[in-house]
Hints:
Elements: E1 15-17, H1 22-25, E2 26-29, E3 33-40, E4 46-52, E5 55-60, E6 64-78, E7 83-87, E8 91-94, E9 99-115
Antiparallel strand pairs: 1-3, 2-5, 3-4, 4-9, 5-9, 6-7, 6-8, 6-9
Amino acid sequence: MSKPNVQQVKFAKLEPYTMPRMEERTIEGSPKTKKLVIFEGENGTESGIWECTPGRFRSKMEQNETMYIYEGQAVLKFDEGGEITIKAGDVLTIPKGSSFVWNIQETVCKVYTDFN
């Protein structure tokens, strides 16, 4: 019987990560991000852990993303209208093409999967 291909990850392994064009997308504050990619698959599928300090910045989803908010709190204000407050314990999926502003009030740490 073969062993399953399982990877155990420690949050301490998060590495500083500069999001593309972060400086021009930032509206307020100086948000800093960290990221650890756990899995990369076909068609751009990616799973990992992402962390960001407080601040406001624009974001546009290049893929669908399902996320579990491990810690922190933020408000997402969508260009199409409406906003939601997310906090530790929440799970949500944001569809590809969505444009919104992150307003991170307490450092957010999420576990995510991006997929087409």
